[in-house]
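SEQUENCE-TO-STRUCTURE ENTRY
===========================

Backbone structure tokens: a row of integers, each naming the local backbone shape at its residue.

Task: work out the structure tokens from the sequence, keeping to the layout shown below.
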Amino acid sequence: MTVEIGHFALVLAFALALVQAILPLAGARLGDERLMATGAPTALVGLAITALAFAALVAAYVASDFSVANVWENSHSAKPLLYKVTGTWGNHEGSMLLWVLILSLFGGLVALFGTNLPATLRANVLAVQGWIGAAFLLFILATSNPFARLVPAPIEGRDLNPVLQDIGLAIHPPLLYLGYVGFSVSFSFAVAALIEGRIDAAWARWVRPWTLAAWIFLTGGIAMGSYWAYYELGWGGFWFWDPVENASFLPWLAGTALLHSALVMERRSALKIWTVLLAILAFSLSLLGTFLVRSGVLTSVHTFASDPTRGVFILMILMLFIGGALALFALRASELSAGGIFQPVSREGALVLNNLFLSTATATVLIGTLYPLVVEALTEDKISVGAPFFNLTFGSLMVPLLLVVPFGPLLAWKRGDLYAVSQRLFAAFGLALAVIVVSYALIDRMSVFAALGYGLAAWLIGGALTDLALKAGLPRASLGVAARRVVGLPGSAVGTVLAHAGLGVTLLGIVSVYSLEVERFVTMKPGDTLEIAGRTLRFEEVTPVRGPNYVEDQARFAVFAPDASPQGEIVSAKRVYTARRMPTTEAGIGTFGFSQLYVSLGDPTADGGIVVRAWWKPQVTLIWLGAVVMMVGGVFSLADRRLRVGAPAARRKKAALPA
């Protein structure tokens, strides 16, 4: 009965999405306040109904109801409870339901926190959200019903894909979808503004918090996905430029550009047309990522489905929303004013340069991702665009951008003094130069390019700290006064410092891994030792272990420091999941400060040994720590009262006059 309730809730949610799409839009056109007012309650009820449908699917997974085809294909009675729950979105149908649930969540949040928006703008935004929701709910009901029954019901399920039975699955997809779908609000604001034909600085202030929230979640989703692939797949890498990895990276690049462009529009009423276009493109790239993952045009560990029918349906959705929004933009763009004027050397100019590089980088990654598909469609020849292309083109665009980043926050609005800002950044430049010299002189195996990479990371971190120090009044103010000023800074100012510093931390980790990584590939037997990066890895034993739905052979390695003192134990395994008879490699990882010793097992040899691949990855955790710092910076910015949607400015009560 629960399954039928979930299916009925999906149908009802589709009907409510149509109501949300039509009535507020009609009310805005007719000037009918009662019709416009229907958008908010409809969005909230739609959220509740969609949550009911999702809860019904989770209940079916927890109860191992194998009469549901989706549960039978992706679950098993012996699977741990956590993976039964996370397995709900570890497949195409369930993940699409999660996608729509998050879309409904954002629509409900607009309804709750958008009370200070003009009535027509709010109605149009909710209507656009309703159209997106209706399209994807129709897609689920027509091609991807998660509640389809099996008659007769199987006794046991086929189990979830083993590589997805990991805690990372509980975190990565929800975060990624919160980012993907969060950009739908920016898209809806852009389309609503184009419908009205009015865009101003207030519009940018309303859009920025939603864009920032989506950017925070997408940053976390990409970082978590990178770390999951790093430790779960046993290959030792953190980024492969896989087409589906690129599909999540593209909206992040566009969203980063949108954040900076919206800031210029809010402060100086400039870049209006460009900001609206970026709001459309950010969500359009999210939809493109959804198409690539679910259409079957790509083969990847990240893909969910390979049904061409579903791909055609999603392609039609893309044509409707992307094509419709761009057509509306082309129709209205000539009627929009360009905005304020500023000098090239100014904070606006730095942000425009930021947008130029980010947009070009987005286009480069998009071309490299789609080019093999276009060639195969036209010539039936299969080619691949790999890491060398992306590293060369993307890196060439990022280096000049990162060089400019510290200048932006220090330049004045409208007209800046480049010479004065350069003087303020002298300490950061000196730090970067010292890091380059020391790195090149002391680490003989490292190339000059790696030393320059270290210097660039130091430049970013030093520039961010310089910005914070100047805002605190250093070096003139005392430390106590400076500390109080830092505490009193607006959240957006602190957020900018943390985001730029986090970028430098991530770059530091990437350069360290690429330049100093050590790899060993040997065959070992119990008792054998391996020297790697000054440490000794001793193979202790192999132990068979039985898990709830798998069996594995665990290999234990003792780790010793250069002075022969023990530093712990690393456990790697070769695992076989009994239901699917699918083997996986469980890498063993030992963390030493910010560095890691990564051990992965290969196949056994005829003489009783086993192939062992070991990597020493210096400072590798800084890659993900930097992403966390960037997210914290985004949270600080989002907490800035000036950016809160629906939060009126605080008013101080006047003190009572003495009698």
The CA atoms of residues 599 and 614 lie 4 Å apart. Residues 645-659 have pLDDT under 50 and may be disordered. The first strand starts at residue 518 and ends at 524.
